[in-house]
Amino acid sequence: MYVAVKGGERAIEASWRLLDQARRGDTRLAELSVAQIREQLRLAVARVMTEGSVYDEELAALAIKQAAGDLVKAIFLLRAYRTTLPRFGYTQAVDTEAMQVERRISATFKDVPGGQLLGATYDYTQRLLDFALLAEGHANGDAASLSSSRTAVSEAETKAEAEAMPRVVSLLDKEGLIEQERPTPDAPEPGDLSREPLAFPASRATRLQNLARGDEGFLLAMGYATQRGYAHSHPFAGEIRFGTIAVEMELDELGETVEIGDIDVTECQMINQFAGSGDVPPTFTQGYGLAFGHSERKAMAMALVDRALRAEELGETLASPTQDIEFMLSHSDNVEASGFVQHLKLPHYVDFQSELELVRRLRAQHAAHSEDRDTSPCVDQTNAQQEQAA
């Protein structure tokens, strides 16, 4: 039971003012702008957009600033804002194979159509602090050299975009070596977790929505667990690609589909151990991950967990929490998890007082029983001595 605190309204208002001061920090330093966060903290912005279920870089950057860098709080803020927005309709399914690729790698084939495209990545950087970044300005050369490098990168991207980049799993699909999910005319419309509560049993479409909104840290830990034996999984990174795709929407007023904008996404297709039976030849299985912006770690972890959650439909033994759909989906959301944990900070005075009185009563009863046990041996011994004397 929660109870009101005397003078709580004034205390809360004062807390807000202190929060504004703490968020601003030292006023002698320039204030961090939303534009700077959007451009220079793009990986944090991508996570907030993905788990906040809103693709808007400016709003995600604003939420990060308001939350003083607490990404879970920023995700909560963005989701709360999302609930105020009207729903105009649904876009068409995007074709990620038509992506304008900025980065594309495969750990399964060295030579793939379109080639490996490293792009901007931390994969090959040394894990050392770059103290040159403490200095203002460009840490690695002047503006002219930076401009020339940007030109070279732009030319490389243009060349890469001009080349066809079919999915790596398509190479296996040509030989029938990997399962492929293809839409059927009678397939039911996928649910919308942003408008409908999670219910079980959950379809794969619902599970993927849940994982996309799920906490990256949770998915990372669970994906790690699947590789350590807590699932029937032996993964290979079939393909990870990052780039821009067009979003289209069918407008009833026009009677046609129009392009309404572009978004950046990261896609991961994880190739896993094969399945088969006496009637079906062995084929590789796969897990899938998709996230807004440049979010490779999230997409990879999502793909690992997605594959683990398919254990029952693939006829595998359910022997790990990572394969338990209800457990995984019910605990992956950081907004819900944060609420349950942090509600413990609210007043629980009445609840605690009742528990305190109960413990005091139990201790009193325990003390009484202890005294009875202490006197009982003396009485028994006296009676025995009297009987012996008689």
Characterization of the model:
- This protein has 390 residues and is of the alpha+beta class.
- The chain has three domains: 75 residues; 203 residues, no CATH class; 38 residues.
- It contains 13 helices and four strands.
- Strand 2 and strand 3 form a beta hairpin.
- The longest helix is centred in the C-terminal third of the chain and has 41 residues.
- It is globular.
- The mean pLDDT is 85.
- It comes from Paraburkholderia xenovorans (strain LB400).
- This is Alkylphosphonate utilization operon protein PhnI.
- InterPro entries: PhnI.
Produce a short descriptive summary.
It holds the Pfam family PhnI. One of its GO terms (biological process) is organic phosphonate metabolic process. By secondary structure, this protein is of the alpha+beta class.
